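Ligand: alpha-D-glucopyranose. Inputs:
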Amino acid sequence: MVRKYVIGNPFPTEAVVQEFPPEKGLPEQVRISTDNGFELTCSLEDGDRVYGLGENVRGINKRGFRYISDCADAPHHYEDVSSLYAAHNFLIVAGHRTFGLFLDYPATMTFDVGYEKMDELRITCDRADLDLYVLDGDSPQDIVHTFRCMIGRSYIPPRFAFGFGQSRWGYMNEDDIRDVVRKHREAHVPLDMVYMDIDYMERYKDFTVNAERYPDFPAFVEEMRREHVRLIPIIDAGVKIEKGYGTYEEGVAGNYFCKNARGEDFVGEVWPGWVHFPDVLNPEAREWFGGQYRFLVDQGIEGFWNDMNEPSIFKTPEGEAEAKEAARRFADAPAPASTGELQAALRALPNSHENFRRFFHRVGDRMVCHDDVHNLFGYNMTRAAGEAFERMYPDRRILLFSRSSYVGMHRYGGIWQGDNYSWWSHLLLNLKMMPSLNMVGFLYTGADLGGFGSNCSRDLVLRWLALGVFTPLMRNHSAIRTREQEFYRFERPEDFRAVISVRYRLLPYLYSEYMKAALGNDMMFRPLAFVYPEDPVAVEIEDQLMLGDEIMIAPVYQQNMSGRFVYLPETMMLLRFLPDGRLEETVLEKGSHYIPVALNEVILLIRQGRALPLGDVFEYEEAVDDSDLVMHGFPGASYELYSDDGMTRMYDRPENRRTLHMPET
Ligand code: GLC
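Predicted complex:
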């Protein structure tokens, strides 16, 4: 049951696809005030838990902290930050009363979840213009399902996207990429994708390929395809200002860029230097920008990652001028000069709301200030590509994921979890974010395995890969000038082969669970609390997750631990993938167990009475054979396998589903 309340004059974000007649009056579950902006409050009782908010810091239960929806280029995911790259304004209060809230509002919104006052949820924003949805349901999972039906089916990538991808900001040319591929193939470490970061472009210009580094790009794409590897290029939000550059010229001529207050094309600085931003909130500009991707698809490209689309702005000419003025005043002031003004001017240069107030989108016949719709940019950049793919390639799937997002973008692409660090705490954050992202529709997701910023250690990469084997997006990515973290940079590379290979044995199961979650508007990763709500221990556990209906995962996320404690809410079968390819199966009773896990092993736990299908090890997705699967688990269990061609959009054919049985004894 969903109730919609229209407050003020909301901006049409198009996050929700179902229609609901607006209610008269106000919801009974919460108190609302519009005297000074918008404020929603409701009391939290002892033991109430609050779920949701998608991509965010901290735990699965959001209680006890303050979160701010304000899409930010936020590389430092410290424990005390309040905003990451996304705005996912959906949450569930579960306990004495259980209900969901979705606040469809495109600018900054603050969620104080028992932070200032421990028994109060308080949601605020500057303008009282939003659609508020109140969702009832029997359980959190039920509310998630209702919400997911409201916002439309999640994006479905091609099946190859469930393979392993190697990435690094720093692969400079085709020989660097050949080298990555050769090393994987020689060592029999599976590989399906190599990601191309900004250096493949000509001077960081979107929809160009550097001809010195890639003299015959289509031939190179084809050569990689013969190796069963797909190249996945990055696309950035900013379009370089450069006379004669096609995308720039077309954008100016078509009036497709965001404007400044004087009605000129707005200028900001990103990797290419000065850029314009495509006005992706305007449907015509969106169609134009999406059409640009064809340049690469025509050369054989089958997937993209959209970046810097919060949008990230290093500075604007106006900000630069102000900072220089402040610096001049500082230089001229008698000593000791105060640094306050200068520091404020420098802080306002990158990614500031000062910059967001400097530009405008065309929406119908009015101009809307970017700051008022800031959280919709990454969503609509990715929507531009997604809509174009549906239009241009109706019969095939293209891999697409984004850094920034808003609810609604989940229909067009996935997300990666942004610029994390090679920190153990970020491995755990990766795990905890999975169910929260699933709640808001983002199923195709994962983090930069091994960590993006700072230097990794061998054990961290191995442990992170052992979580990554379960996440739909499995990609090792790192930043330029950090320690290199491809498997072959470390001692005993065979340990990495052992871990990555498990992914390919699990691939039929993972793909099947993904498809069932997408087609059924359901979650692939669930907190234990959703599955064992009556178990007082299970409801608080956040470092183990349920994956589909069959298994529980419990990765090791601490350094120098040769195993971990795992809580079993019921009898389960421990399945251990040994480095030599053998499997070990042990039935464990309900309760706590210390489970040793070597660095070159992966474990999972099969629920009582369930079984999952496993295949052999393959070195790339195309080789994965669904017809030769072996069931593992409890005698007599059956499993519904979803499998299709992985490429077209014919998801609903009955022959895509078949039941596999585990023998009775
Ligand atoms: C951003 C992206 C990162 C990428 C880098 C260079 O920081 O988040 O993944 O490697 O830009 O393009």
